Amino acid sequence: MLEVRGIEAGYGASQVLFGVSLTIEPHQVVSLMGRNGMGKSTTIKCITGALPVRKGQILFEGRDITNLPADVIARLGIAIVPEGRQCFPNLTVREHLVAFARPPAKPQKGELDAQTAPWDLARIYELFPRLKEREHHMGNQLSGGEQQMLAIGRALSTNPKLLILDEATEGLAPVIREEIWKCLAHLKSEGQSIFIVDKYLDNILSLTNEIFVAKKGILFLLEKDLMEESF
């Protein structure tokens, strides 16, 4: 589904990524770990069109999306749950979910139709009942956990082929954090392709198919079986 081939990127004179490569197959959950400043968020920005790629190539479903505008990439079926949630303070929960909604993309030639129902308002409320209870509250009236649910629901409302989450559980209370992980496990069971950046190794081991670690702008694929044995 997604293939990142040796990309290089940075900010001004500072280079952050040095030949980053990774692959995400349909229905896979792939995670990216690493200390701060190692290039995790920069990798996501390049994939979503928020930061120019200086060298290398990014393919999505066989199409070259390198340096395409972010809105074009989003319409192709890549949605992001950004770090910090970035909910609009002056929009209600319902307005967030309606304003960004779009129907599922039509399958390309040779593809099968989606096996699951589209992500409409009712289905998002079923996944996150708390959002239904708070649907008329403004974004700045929600708790951190509720904002994270809203950010995930907002991304799902676009019916993405690939869902990207950047630090999805950062700063949340443990009980809310576990609720988010259960939600991601449910999405995986339905065949949603997911790329997640997070730091909670036990949850990542139980959820993901492959684990990459970022170190000084280079990604390393970990042997998950060996990690599970040592963990």
Number of E strands: 10
How many strands, what sense, and barrel or not for the largest sheet?
A: 6 strands, mixed
CATH topology, by name, is: Rossmann fold
| SSE run | EEEHEEHEHHHHEHEHEEH
Averaged pLDDT: 90
Q: Give the helix proportion (percent range).
A: 25-40%
Low-confidence stretches: none
Strand content: 25-35%
Class from helix and strand fractions: alpha/beta
Name given to the CATH architecture: 3-Layer(aba) Sandwich
Annotation field: number of helices: 9
Q: Any idea of the CATH class?
A: Alpha Beta
Corresponding CATH superfamily: P-loop containing nucleotide triphosphate hydrolases
Radius of gyration: 17 Å
Strand order of the biggest β-sheet: 6-7-8-3-9-10
- How many domain units? 1
| Global geometry | globular
How far apart, in Å, are the first and last alpha carbons?
30 Å
Folded structure, characterized:
- The protein has about 230 residues and is of the alpha/beta class.
- It has one domain: P-loop containing nucleotide triphosphate hydrolases (Rossmann fold, 3-Layer(aba) Sandwich).
- It has helices spanning about 40-50, 70-75, 95-100, 120-125, 130-135, 145-155, 175-190, 200-205, 225-230; strands spanning about 1-10, 15-25, 30-35, 55-60, 65, 80, 160-165, 195, 210-215, 220.
- The chain starts with a strand and ends with a helix.
- The model has no long low-confidence stretch (mean pLDDT about 90).
Question: What's the structural blueprint in terms of helices and strands?
Answer:
Blueprint lengths: L1 E10 L2 E11 L4 E5 L6 H9 L6 E6 L2 E2 L5 H7 L1 E4 L11 H7 L21 H7 L1 H5 L10 H13 L5 E5 L7 H16 L3 E5 L3 H7 L2 E6 L2 E4 L2 H7 L1
Parallel strand pairs: 3-8, 3-9, 6-7, 7-8
Antiparallel strand pairs: 1-2, 1-4, 4-5, 9-10
Helix pairs in contact: 3-6
